[in-house]
Each structure stands twice: as structure tokens, then as C-alpha cells.
Inverse folding.
């Protein structure tokens, strides 16, 4: 690949069972970092969304390796968490009432690029 050609390598996880608001907090932490720093940040993050984003990031890195790129020069160029469909459930309450429970899902997108 010529040095003037820039190609992003992306991966996504659709219908992830985590609320987008919670996953975006983790996605914002790694945007623009090198992949070593991003993986270390996700490895030691106590947030649940770090596990989802780490698997997507590893998949994007594997996609770049398939194109025979130098993995040491990669950085996280894009992280995006979109809202997926909401699973609707109901919790029975007293006196015959019910309260809705919205189980939100996310579409997680991560792209890596050569620095």
C-alpha cells in the first residue's frame, strides 16, 4: 500500500446488551490513542463497557493485520456508539399495576488507522 493512501480498518458489534450512554463513557476514553495505550486503558477500566469495546478494538486490529500493516503504528481513529433497538419488559407491581423496564442495546463501532 502506498504511503499516500490512507485506509481505515473498522469493526462493529451490533445489538450489544449495554446502554449506549454507559458505553459512550468508555468509548470517549480511547479515541485518538495508540492501540497499546487504548488496550491498556480498557484492560484496567472498571466499567462494564470496556469489555465490549475491547473485543471490537481487537477485531479492528485483526482486520488491519490481515492487510499486512505495522501494528505498532496503528491508533484508534474513530469510536462511535449508536443506539440499537430497545427490548421492552414489564415489572409487576402492587395492586395489579406494572412498570415498564427498557433494556437498551447499542451498536459499537471502532476504527483504527495508520499514524
Amino acid at each position: 500500500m502506498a504511503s499516500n493512501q490512507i485506509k481505515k480498518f473498522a469493526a462493529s458489534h451490533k445489538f450489544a446488551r449495554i446502554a449506549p450512554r454507559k458505553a459512550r463513557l468508555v468509548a470517549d476514553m480511547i479515541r485518538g490513542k495508540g492501540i497499546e495505550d487504548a488496550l491498556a486503558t480498557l484492560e484496567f477500566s472498571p466499567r462494564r463497557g470496556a469489555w465490549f469495546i475491547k473485543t471490537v478494538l481487537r477485531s479492528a486490529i485483526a482486520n488491519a493485520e490481515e492487510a499486512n500493516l505495522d501494528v505498532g503504528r496503528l491508533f484508534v481513529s474513530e469510536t462511535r456508539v449508536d443506539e440499537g433497538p430497545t427490548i421492552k419488559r414489564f415489572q409487576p407491581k402492587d395492586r395489579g399495576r406494572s412498570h415498564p423496564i427498557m433494556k437498551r442495546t447499542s451498536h459499537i463501532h471502532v476504527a483504527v488507522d495508520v499514524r
Remarks:
- The beta strands are 9-16, 74-83, 87-92, 98-103, 106-114.
- The chain has a mean pLDDT of 94.
- The helical segments are 20-30, 35-43, 49-66.
- Residues 23 and 48 are 8 Å apart (CA to CA).
